[in-house]
Design a protein that fits this description.
Layout (H helix, E strand, L loop, with lengths): L20 H28 L40 H4 L13 H9 L49 E8 L2 H14 L1 H4 L5 E5 L7 E9 L2 H13 L5 E3 L1
Antiparallel strand pairs: 1-3, 1-4, 2-3
Keywords: Membrane, Transmembrane, Transmembrane helix
Organism: Neoroseomonas eburnea
Protein name: SPOR domain-containing protein
């Protein structure tokens, strides 16, 4: 038996046509080295060179542009200046100086002060005419007359044998009618002081009984109507009963 050890791999013959792996590995290493070198050179050039701060400038174009045709309402002479309109011939030329201020005449003033002032002539005394009265310097003012106070209406009173009466209300009971008279007499004593109450019972079929409050003794209807006018002016109901 042969005791020589045989290795586990086989020697590949050189002429088998496979790719040259060694040359590929060497080329890849060289390419990587070139890339790293180029990166280092670029970084050094950026750090070593002069770096300027960027300057921010505004837009040089105009912010607003006036249109050629603004539009809107057309007003005559809208583009003319105020001080260039209606300039007369006197204003078109050069400026003119105003006249000099008037100076006072001192000699004329001194001569006027030096002259004595004329004395006023005294009035001649008037001869007194017998039987005539001297005129007062001022006429006496007429005294203002106070306006006459309106005459108060005469206080009404019942006439003897007067039969015309007036009605002042209609209530549901005799006590209510008498109480209404007492209330009216207290409030309008100057109108009802001379009269006496008259309570008249009034019944109608199918209706409630009423008690009419009346007073009277007027000579005629005109006197009763005058009384009712005064009563209505005071807020009292009043009807002439004929």
């Amino acid at each position: 038996m042969n005791d020589i050890p045989v290795p586990s791999y086989r020697v590949r013959p050189s002429g088998d046509g496979g790719p040259p792996w060694r040359m590929i590995a060497v080329g890849g290493g060289l390419a990587m080295a070139l890339l790293v070198g180029a990166g280092v050179v670029w970084g050094v050039s950026r750090m070593g060179g002069s770096r300027s701060v960027p300057l921010i400038e505004p837009d040089p174009r105009p912010f607003k542009v006036r249109p050629d045709d603004p539009g809107g309402l057309r007003v005559p002479n809208q583009d003319e200046l105020i001080f260039e309109r209606n300039r007369g011939p006197a204003q078109s030329g050069g400026g003119q100086l105003a006249p000099e201020p008037e100076a006072p005449r001192l000699d004329a003033l001194r001569a006027q002060v030096a002259q004595p002032a004329p004395r006023p002539a005294e009035p001649a005394p008037q001869a007194a005419v017998p039987g005539s009265q001297a005129l007062a310097p001022q006429a006496a003012a007429p005294q203002a007359t106070a306006p006459a106070a309106p005459e108060a209406p005469a206080r009404p009173a019942p006439a003897p044998n007067g039969r015309i009466r007036v009605q002042l209300g209609a209530l549901t009971s005799e006590e209510a009618a008498q109480g209404e008279w007492d209330r009216l007499a207290r409030r309008h004593a100057e109108l009802l002081g001379a009269f006496r109450p008259q309570v008249v019972r009034f019944e109608r079929e199918g209706q409630a009984t009423l008690f009419r409050l009346r007073t009277g003794g007027f000579a005629d209807v005109a006197a009763a109507q005058a009384f009712c006018e005064q009563a209505r002016a005071r807020g009292m109901p009043c009807v002439v009963i004929r």
